[in-house]
Amino acid sequence: MDQWKKIHVLGAGSQGKVYYDVKIDPSLLCASVAAVKCADNNRSSSLQKEAKILTTLKDISIDNDNIPIYNLFLEYASGGSLHDLINNSKRRMIKMSELEVGFYTYQLLKGIQHVHKKGWVHCDIKPANILVFNNEHGGIHKLKLADFGLSLKVDDRKAYMSGIPLSNRGTMLYAPPESLIYGRCAVAEMMTGDRIWIHCDTEDLQENIMNDEVNPEIPSNVSEVARDFFCKCLIKDPVTRWMSDQLLEHPFIQQA
């Protein structure tokens, strides 16, 4: 049976770890690589839920301590995450152009649209959960959504939107305003390298958002079309906020 070998840890979270795995094929003198998310089998409910959503290879194995481990094999993203891409651009002091941000946003919107059509809401979209695949010929990268362990079925989103406390409603700084936590726009972060809510105290922000006492800081050094796009994304009322199909038709996306 083919054997995968864990080389090093790519990342870790509350549910387990992600490893860089390699499998050698002696007959072809080549190696296959993958990112493998692992968790103790008795604590793998979130990972198993993610496996049901993704069309990926999954397997049960036994580690060196004879502890059952649940493995979820995923495509390895050699470019890391969008969080890494943003930080690298910031360190090099080379901001992404609006056309580049627009094209990345187009990819994200298409991914979100596809997930919604399949009956799921991701619930934890943030730069760290957006994988970057290097373009072999340089230029624009390919992005893919990742980490579906907190996803909800569309019908379950009613509770998420109502502000009812949920244990799995995602990372606070990225959740939409109606979930009573801190909404932040990854598009603005790509363009500026900074978070929208950077000047707000996290203890008071939740109440201030819902009482309309604080608004996100839209970047000042962007074009009018980009500013309008941000405003459409950050409308607090989920009924009037633009959906992914509307945003895909916005001039900010169309020009990219």
Automatic annotation (TrEMBL):
SMART domains: S_TKc (SM00220). One of its GO terms (molecular function) is protein kinase activity. Gene3D superfamilies: Transferase(Phosphotransferase) domain 1. Residues 4-253 form the Protein kinase domain. It comes from Solanum commersonii. Pfam families: Pkinase. InterPro entries: Kinase-like_dom_sf (IPR011009), Plant_MAPKKK (IPR052751), Prot_kinase_dom (IPR000719). PROSITE patterns: PROTEIN_KINASE_DOM. GO terms for biological process: signal transduction. This is Protein kinase domain-containing protein.
